[in-house]
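Escalation from tier 1.

The customer reports that the assembly of two entities below gives different structure tokens on two consecutive runs. Tier 1 could not reproduce it. I'm attaching the input and our single run for tier 2 to review.
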Amino acid sequence: MKKSEKAPIPLKYQQYVQQMQKIADIRFANAVLQWDQETYLPAKGAGVRGRQIATLAETAHALFSEDWFGDLLQELSSTDRLDENQRKNVTLSLEDYIKNKKYKPQFVRKLNEQVNITFHAWLDARKKNDFRVWEKELDHLISLKKEESYILGFEKHPYDAHLNEFDKGITVEFLDENFARLLPELKRVQLAVQGKQDGPKPLLKGIFDGEEQWRLGLTILKKMGFDFNAGRLDRSEHPFTISFHTQDVRITTRINEQDPTQLIWTCIHEGGHALYEQGLPAESYGLPLGEACSFSIHESQSRFWENGIGRSRAFCHFLFPLLKNCFPDSLQRWNEDILYRAVNWIQPSLIRTEADEITYHYHVAVRYELEKKLMNNELKTKDIPILWADYYKDYLGLSIPDDNNGCLQDVHWAHGSLGYFPTYSLGSLYGVQLLNQYSATYPNWEKDIANGDFSGPHKWLNREVYIYGKKFTSLELCNISTCKPLQMSQFITYLENKFLIKL
Amino acid sequence: MKKSEKAPIPLKYQQYVQQMQKIADIRFANAVLQWDQETYLPAKGAGVRGRQIATLAETAHALFSEDWFGDLLQELSSTDRLDENQRKNVTLSLEDYIKNKKYKPQFVRKLNEQVNITFHAWLDARKKNDFRVWEKELDHLISLKKEESYILGFEKHPYDAHLNEFDKGITVEFLDENFARLLPELKRVQLAVQGKQDGPKPLLKGIFDGEEQWRLGLTILKKMGFDFNAGRLDRSEHPFTISFHTQDVRITTRINEQDPTQLIWTCIHEGGHALYEQGLPAESYGLPLGEACSFSIHESQSRFWENGIGRSRAFCHFLFPLLKNCFPDSLQRWNEDILYRAVNWIQPSLIRTEADEITYHYHVAVRYELEKKLMNNELKTKDIPILWADYYKDYLGLSIPDDNNGCLQDVHWAHGSLGYFPTYSLGSLYGVQLLNQYSATYPNWEKDIANGDFSGPHKWLNREVYIYGKKFTSLELCNISTCKPLQMSQFITYLENKFLIKL
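Tier 1 run:
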């Protein structure tokens, strides 16, 4: 009797898995279309590709919103006959299901349409280097994002609803407190480092053959442990990582023939994301436990590699001979010390994506403050450029020469991605804390890196981060992987050690 | 009153179009996944890609099989308030719908599974060069194909049901009659040509740089009118053309560094297919009138270009200087006459895909006879190699040395594509008849080709073939475009003119 009572639940869990994997098939198929769009799509193909992508998104969404599936999730979530991981999957899927159901189809359509319009208005504004060209559509989109705050719900601040989308549990309260502690410390370290730096920044001169750069990128990715039988490297205008499942993870990069360090550190950054995707539990394909923890933790992986490993002295020791071998003429007067200084040069600048490890966080803080005030009606869309300029003056000491070098530089708002930027800073913090933990476990890691053996951090991250998928929130995972809560102090100490003591 | 009576129909037709375009989005998305599978997919990606492709196919199929959609099609097909093209779309969709409904889901699953197993058994058999490795699974698949004949229905011969799938209205009766007339004529011309040929066939010697070949392929495709803003050329193991809509049509080819003519004539062949796809009516996206007429007519387009244009003396006149410019050393002793003779060399051979314009049809006839007898229980699967050998002896005068050079050479049966091969011969006949009609309209066309201007045939085919989509059957289209029914005699006269009079 007992057995037959129990029988339906495993079957029903299997139904849940099947539906989730079907949805995953469609979502990942859509990811293939998006990858193709950024890499190989012929110019005239964009129009119909847009509708094909929209149809797949709607189809996946419709499958996830079916009433019977909600009933199934409810039933599974109230049984005690699932194991811990099964329960976690069901709980997370049900949360998503309930959230999805909050949206009226008309709102979703309006939001998607407005994103599309706002994105194209942004492209146009970029061309004309004029925020005013974008203002009206951005304002409409921000209105919808405010509406969305109330659809999703929040406890204290409407911005919380959006922050929660990118990193569960993160709030204005949490970020206000952390930025308030971070920014003065950053300023202190930044000024001290700049006082120590012998200017000007070492600059590479010459033309660096694209194919040589490409081979170098491939070499480094292979050394990092990126599995080229389960992934690819291609070119696109903006570098990105995209996954179609753990056995097919693709990176893109771009070639700048004036500066090979761009391709190299882009490969390392995207490689960090990609190793995470390749390392997620393949058996949980389509389920929450097969997905990455959060945007913050994803970013921690790219920062761990890009800054923690890639901008270490050990890595420069490893890289310099390779680089010199590829470009002997241009690197005649360089050595690994100069390379190390060049890739760790601290200098406030106007463009976030080009910023160094310290001043980067001012850029994030500016966007955080603006998004928060927009969501709270403290800031009107039309006043974005003014406040942007004020903050850049205040945080970075810089004047904004034009909109393209100011508030038109990022695509995020044009996509309606408000709440995304803070994950970049949180990712850096988590990245450093993971590096510290790894370093405490394997104090000699730098020797391996210097010798071109990067398998240590890869194995460690696999064990401490990748395998958990979405089982924990960022903060929980941090506790598990580093045995400590998120500690701002670790990041500051790391910067001090690196830039004031060791450099 | 009258107006409100009429109102629902246009709206309902719009519903029909929307559903068809949604289905097209998913099918074409799946085509992107298939293209990627053949071009850029990393090795380990194949497994999950297979299930993603299967899910998209099932999703599209489910959308097309919804009951409300059948009701809608029935209603639209019985109204007189649609225009001619709308009526044609609805009629063809309803035919498809009814056909689809004949299949039980269990049968479709069984067939798909058996195709998958049979394909892998074929790969294995190819590796071992042994038909016996394939026999059992092929036999299972053929049994299912026989079952399918009765599901689809036929009037006289079970094979008719399958022939109809690739070219509507084509029957055993029609093909028996045509092959019976074609084969003796072919034999007569073949023997006469071989008597005239000064052997041996001119062969190119040397290594032909792949990148030079690639550029030549691109040049020729551009000259043919292939729009690279609405398509691409990539590499794959087996060349193919695939379309995601008229503005994104992709070709693949392969590089043989021993023989550049392979890449060149593959590009022309696939280019012929691709021009057709780029020229289909874009406004009928997702509807029958936006699709190609049939497999035969599709093949007529590749043959028109590959043989009619590409193997003309005029084309060799155009190509030779380009070829010599790319590979001056290897072509030192060649001239355009030698090139013309080389690409028009008539010689029976074992492999269909390498056959010349005349003996090619023996290869098709062998397969046609075998498929017919398999469907009619006149031939047992285990006896395929024996009958294959008999026919090759009879038609081509050749002995079969091993299975890879015999009945294991084509993938078609492994895919369950019985009924496909005859479209290759029909395509050649249609292709020649189209060329004759074009030639009658523009008697000086060869001058343009010799000067590298290929816009004439492209424009003409656009007007006479592309724009009709699937509005007519192959035979109807032939009547419209060439003002005559399909005439076997035109093909024979073409061969005589080309190989016995002009050469």
